[in-house]
Amino acid sequence: MNANPLAPTWLVPPSDANALAPGVWPAHATRGSDGEVMFAGVASSTLIAEFGSPVYVLDEADARARAARIRELFTDAFGAIGAKVTVYYAGKAFLSAEVVRWMTEEGLSIDVASGGELALALAAGVDAELLGVHGNNKSAEEIDSAVTVGAGAIVLDSEIEIERVAETAKRHGVVQRVRLRTNTGVHAHTHEFLATAREDQKFGVPLSEVAGHVKRIRALPSLEFLGLHSHIGSQIFEVSGFVEAIARLIEVHAGLLEGGPVPQLNLGGGFGIAYTSVDDVVPIEEMAEKLAGAVAAEAERHGIAVPDIAIEPGRAIVGPAGATLYTVGTIKDVEVATDAGANGTQTAVRRYVSVDGGMSDNIRPALYEADYTVRMANRTSAAEPALVRIAGKHCESGDIVVHADYLPGDVTPGDTLAVAATGAYCWSLASNYNFLVRPAVVAVNDGTARAIVRRETIADLLGRDLALTTAHSNDTPGKGATR
User: Fold this and answer.
1) I need a surface site. Which of 99, 195, 425, 442 has the fewest CB within 10 A?
2) Where are the alpha helices (DSSP H) in 277-416?
3) Cα separation of 271 and 285, whole Å?
């Protein structure tokens, strides 16, 4: 078939609009004999019937395997150059007590970025020594909580935080281990809003100021300096940005050794994943080997010992292991002008397929212009593929779940759609916009499914409205809260 002129240039019409592209879908996503998409042996229809629609699906074995593989590959690559590796799971990607358990059982530490994430990790039973605490504006309460429980490391993001953490640790009579987040100035090849190491942004301190801040940290007896921290961005598809950041970091690291030990270097995360079949992802084994090679080369160039390393993958672990199921509501063909030539205005049709979720369960397309892959999940079809835009049900024209993909042309109301690679930053960024409830998160494994985060209810939403709850508690139907 010919490409629809409204399709982006990268989107090639598929020979089979039913196929599940390897590397995009969870490892155990398959089509059953009846054409229905199965997740780890559990049918899409079963998941919706039991847990509602939309529903997030998370392949437990896939997430565990990705965590273990990253840990093993980085351990081997850096072990070969004499360095130990600590792998933190970046909880901001998706955090629940069950996922925390999976990660720690696979040998990972946990990275948290707020008091709420810290509380959840602790409630899930994590040893506080395994926690790294982030945040560019940690509150006094968050700092106090992290110091009180004995968090393994607090990442200092500014000069002010040096004094705040030191004072809190002094008050509790402890020595708190800290890292200093640095802004390397490396511009990772990523979306502008995802780049977190540019000079003009809120995270970290410039490399030119590091020596002075580290001198201050070392002068405070309630702090122990572990080393520098860097995070150059997210959804990164190339190694060169990391290599350049490593060169700049090791140069500063070497200078800091003149004033005392610098046992670690945290390289952050940001490893990209495939959201579509054309995304060119760096294999994780290549990433590990090239980063280890860069660290070894720079350490040798500066004549220093190779430091121990920490990394913080999140998306690379849970992103590909997740998918979201939706139910089709309405379908609308929109004729769009494509050209105004000598033969008059040319048009093409874009099919809008609206589903029962949207930007409340996946804000990334609206926030980052992110692309996703969609397939029919309840059946297969031999119908000619049609260009579709999967739209949500919110009162926003930008409420798009999938900007462009091809589905069989006979997609119809009531069909189930599956969107791939939604394990990271979908539930975490979810909202109740238009008073939609947030979907359940369901773990699937070896033919079984269980909710690890329950679906919200309208009662949950109403229960937060104090005018309503006060009225109900007063047992006065129809009367508002007293003043």
Assistant:
1) 195
2) 284-302, 315-318, 364-368
3) 12
Gap between the Cα atoms of 112 and 152, Å rounded? 11
365 near 403, Cβ under 8 Å? Answer: yes
**Contact in structure between 109 and 179 (CB atoms under 8 Å):** no
Domains parsed from the chain with CATH numbers: 29-59+320-462 (2.40.37.10), 60-318 (3.20.20.10)
Q: Are the beta carbons of 36 and 378 closer than 8 angstroms?
A: yes
Instruction: Return the residue matching tokens 């040998």.
Output: 107
Number of Cβ within a 10 Å radius of residue 293: 16
| Residue 323 bridge partners (DSSP) | 57, 420
Rounded distance between C-alpha atoms, residue 156 and residue 164, angstroms? 10
Which pLDDT tens digit goes with each residue over 100-133? 999 999 999 999 999 999 999 999 999 999 999 9
Kind and range of the H or E element at 68?
A: helix 60-79
Distance in angstroms (rounded) separating the CA atoms of residues 82 and 482:
68
Active site residues: 395
Distance CA 279, CA 272 (A): 9
Q: Dihedral, CA atoms, 469, 473, 477, 481, nearest 10 degrees?
A: -60
If one counts every other C-beta atom within 10 angstroms of the C-beta of residue 122, the result is 18
Report how far residue 23's alpha carbon sits from residue 32's, in angstroms, rounded to the nearest whole number: 19
Round the average pLDDT of the chain to a whole number and report it.
Answer: 93
Q: Measured between alpha carbons, how far is 246 from 186 in angstroms, rounded to an integer?
A: 10
Nearest to 401 by CA among 56, 146, 29, 124: 56
Q: Which of 260, 224, 333, 247 lies closest to 6, judged by CA?
A: 333
Exposed, middle or buried by CB within 10 Å (0-12, 13-18, 19+), for 65? middle
